[in-house]
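User: Last request for today: this protein with zinc ion, please.
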Amino acid sequence: MARLDIVTFPNPMLARDCSPVGEIGTEIRSLAEDMLETMYAAEGRGLAAPQVARALRIFVMDEGWKDREPAPRVFINPEITWTSPETRITPEGCLSLPGVTARVERPAQIHMRWTGIDGTAQEEDLHGFAAICAQHELDHLDGIVTLDRIDRQTRLALIEEYSA
Ligand code: ZN
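Assistant: Here's the final one, the structure of the complex with zinc ion:
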């Protein structure tokens, strides 16, 4: 296992549309392990491949490890197949935007499908912080960061603070 460098905004890697993962072989398995190690070391709760400069549709998540036993999960080629009409606004941090917290409004619940690291098809209803975290990470695979999901004025203020 190895720790990877995390790219930070405005690195163009973070604005890329990532490619689907094909065969899940040694390379993908070791990328997932390295991403988990990197996420825990950076004290994050989720990390997407473009954040470690790989334009692939894969993210790792363990949204509750700070409050319970670690439960690492790998999401390959994830898709959201349903979103709840009710939304919630959550202050979201991002390992690629150190020091920036943006209040993002998102559906409160989602249904997601993905391929697990063992190659099996998975699906689950996600709610609470897991739903928010998964949407944040999936956004990264589409080249979207939290700053793209807030109003222009707040965005400009946060960018100014970030670059100060
Ligand atoms: Zn992020």
